[in-house]
Write a structure and sequence with these properties.
The longest helix has 11 residues, at about 615-625. Strand 14 and strand 15 form a beta hairpin. With about 700 residues, this protein is mainly β.
Length: about 700
């Protein structure tokens, strides 16, 4: 008994319950013909390219996800050809998919790849919509020349721009990617996991408006010195040691004569440098030091508030790419992890036969409010093996094979709500003999016992507080939603929570300067749904973020830091037509030494139906006296520093103001000089002091 107590010591002991199950039925299937997108050419009557990777993304910002499909040119084909990415959208009536690639990206050239390896989805330009970074490695055969990665940035109106030309002008051989803010500047950064030495792995450090700067120097030498014995196939950014900074976890791809490092963490020094602290190597998994790590994901398997790791591996050497193992590394809270794979998953944790899985996904498949996970990649015909693991609620998981779900062996699938009922269905994508996209679906009919998570969650940092704005869940469960609970967790595990009936919810009592990871859960009485995707915010004394919105119908801009206004603009119900531009700046909401109050006037419809922000008491008073028809909403909406002869003091950055010079008067405020200049080129008038026409100075 002593040995058992040690093995299961960190498990959550609870009531005995029946193992969860899944119920699926065959759903819509069919083909998609899009004449404006050319089909891949044929060789010996067979198309040389077909789908190999797909990922779900909320491209509309409403919680309903689309499917991004990447194609591959098989290394058995002598012809190399880049094929366009395809975007498939579930039909409104749930009867399958339509191709919206052209609707989202226009009629010009489309982002194209030879071999997509991984697709990362997150908001990269700050407009509140998910963007897409595609890691690709090109033709998977000699000479392994690589290819350029792809980037799709949201325009804020549910359309996208192919921003791939803004990436470094080089051919990458990227096997993985991971996204997160590693230097704490509030902008997402991208790790590009190349497995060839030219170029080696690197970071794309986020800059405003979805721009990136390539950086190699923040990575250790052993990561940069890529060779056959030292290359990393998988990557993840996650806070391993609980200091509030994202660390880099990488998994090796064994292909040489000596054992590999396998799974390693390189620690962040707090400003995005991973070279200054000793690395930690995690325990080897089922296949030992010569395994290949295919994927790494974070999941709190025992619900203790700390992120654990799931490491997906396969065999190498003489049995390369045969079998698979899921290693469960449980976070002990001190930067140490223990291997509890068998205790958590039982015998389903590994197998030594059949094809291998290449990726893991985390999702609530059975609608019980607890996160499960599933694998996909290369299925073995005729071999019915586990592909999904359902959370039992006690820190253990029950394996599900393909037969109960598909009526056959497992299929390489992605989970996405096809029919709009709030439950995650399964879809697989392939091509027909002509090269047209084909799909098959399996609809989830598992009775939901808990609501799903809120969607489009964003954190807005304030002074000792964080505002969480979000949209309602797509699946309510058997009872109506009774409210929401927002929770922010500090690096040391201190929790602060707040409840509310709707967005926004403000979590108070936070420590300024601390990076908090925040989530929102849907409540159905005493039953909680799963946590939303985590979002990070760092409160600062006296500071709030001012966000910019744009209304394309009016061609008007609007800025605000007020949580309730941001939530209403994001929701688009009470106030319609506004979308985030991705631009923002900091402001004080209370008077500080050396600051001046900024008033906010409402300009009634007869005069423009807009807002004006006056800098300082003198401009505000003069505005009211000269325009008696304006409505003063606040004499001190925010507090900001004024420039001296157009020069901002140290620790601040210039704010530019441009005027539309139209009867429907509107002003735009931006810290980006290039944006100001583009507006001037459109006929707007620049206003401000000094040779650079600076109107105010925002704290950095």
């Amino acid at each position: 008994m002593a040995a058992a107590a040690c093995l299961f010591g960190s498990l959550v002991v609870g009531e005995v319950r029946a193992a969860p199950t899944l119920t699926f039925v065959p759903g819509p299937s069919g083909g998609i013909v899009e004449p404006s997108i050319p089909l891949p050419p044929k060789l010996n009557g067979i198309p040389i390219a077909g789908p190999n990777m797909w990922s779900a993304a909320d491209l509309r910002g409403d919680g309903r996800k689309d499917l991004i499909v990447g194609l591959i040119v098989s290394p058995t084909q002598p012809t190399v050809l880049a094929s366009p990415l395809r975007i498939l959208r579930p039909k409104s009536d749930g009867a399958g998919f339509v191709d919206v690639t052209r609707a989202l990206l226009g009629n010009g050239p489309l982002p194209s790849t030879e071999h997509v390896r991984e697709i990362a989805v997150t908001d990269l330009n700050g407009d509140g919509r998910e963007d897409v970074f595609v890691a690709a490695h090109g033709y998977d055969a000699l000479p392994f020349a690589g290819e350029r990665n792809s980037l799709m940035l949201s325009n804020g109106d549910a359309t996208f721009t192919d921003a791939s030309p803004s990436l470094p002008p080089q051919r990458d051989f990227s096997h993985s990617t991971a996204v997160g803010d590693v230097n704490g500047d509030g902008l997402p950064d991208i790790f590009v996991g190349n497995v060839s030495g030219s170029p080696p792995p690197y970071f794309l450090m986020g800059r405003p408006s979805g721009r990136f700067e390539q950086v190699f120097s923040s990575l250790p030498t052993e990561v940069l010195q890529v060779n056959v014995d030292n290359r990393f196939h998988a990557s993840l950014l996650v806070d391993i040691d609980g200091d509030g900074h994202l660390d880099l976890v990488v998994g090796s791809g064994y292909a040489g004569e000596s054992p590999s490092l396998q799974t390693v963490v390189y620690y962040n020094d707090g400003v995005g440098d991973f070279t200054r602290r000793p690395r930690t190597q995690f325990p080897f998994g089922r296949f030992g030091a010569t395994a290949t790590v295919d994927d790494i994901v974070a999941l709190d398997v025992n619900d203790d508030g700390r992120m654990d790791l799931l490491v997906l591996t396969t065999q190498s050497g003489a049995r390369q790419d045969v079998g698979m193992a899921v290693q469960v590394l449980v976070n002990q809270g001190n930067g140490q992890f223990t291997d509890e794979s068998v205790a958590r998953l039982g015998t389903s944790a590994s197998r030594t036969n059949g094809s291998w899985w290449t990726f893991l996904r985390v999702a609530d498949l059975d609608g019980d409010g607890r996160l499960d996970f599933y694998a996909f990649g290369y299925a073995q015909p005729g071999l019915d093996v586990p592909f999904a693991w359902l959370n039992n609620g006690d820190g253990t998981y029950s394996a599900v094979s393909g037969q109960p779900v598909f009526g056959r062996e497992p299929v390489s699938v992605e989970a996405i709500d096809v029919d709009g009922d709030g439950r995650l269905d399964f879809v697989t994508v392939y091509s027909d003999g002509e090269g047209n996209i084909q799909y098959s679906t399996w609809l989830n009919r598992t009775p939901r016992t808990a609501p799903s998570e809120p969607v489009a969650v964003h954190a807005i940092a304030g002074d000792g507080r964080v505002g969480l704005v979000f949209k309602p869940p797509l699946g309510n469960g058997p009872q109506p939603v009774s409210g929401y609970t927002a929770t922010c967790r500090s690096p040391t595990g201190v929790l602060r929570s707040a409840a509310g009936a709707a967005s926004p919810i403000v979590v108070d009592g936070l420590v300024n300067g601390t990076r908090y990871t925040c989530t929102v859960r849907t409540q159905m009485g005493s039953v909680s749904g799963p946590a939303s995707r985590p979002t990070v915010a760092q409160p600062r004394a006296g500071l709030n973020s001012v966000l910019e919105f744009y209304h394309s119908g009016l061609d008007h801009y609007f800025i605000t830091w007020v949580f309730d206004e941001i939530a209403k603009l994001d929701a688009g119900t009470q106030i319609q037509g506004w979308t985030r531009t991705g631009y923002s700046f900091k402001t004080y909401t209370t008077a500080q030494a050396g600051t001046s109050p900024v008033c906010r006037y409402y300009i009634p419809p007869a005069l423009g139906d807009s807002h004006f922000y006056g800098r300082g008491t003198a401009e505000c008073d003069a505005t009211g006296q000269n325009n008696p028809g304006l409505v003063l909403e606040s004499p001190d909406f925010m507090h900001i520093t004024l420039p001296t002869a157009g020069t901002c003091p140290a620790g601040t950055m210039p704010i530019y103001r441009v005027f539309s010079n139209r009867p429907d008067a509107n002003h735009r405020y931006t810290t980006d000089r290039a944006v100001r200049d583009r507006m001037v080129a459109r006929g707007w008038l620049a206003e401000g002091d000094g040779p650079d026409l600076v109107v105010m100075c925002a704290p950095q």
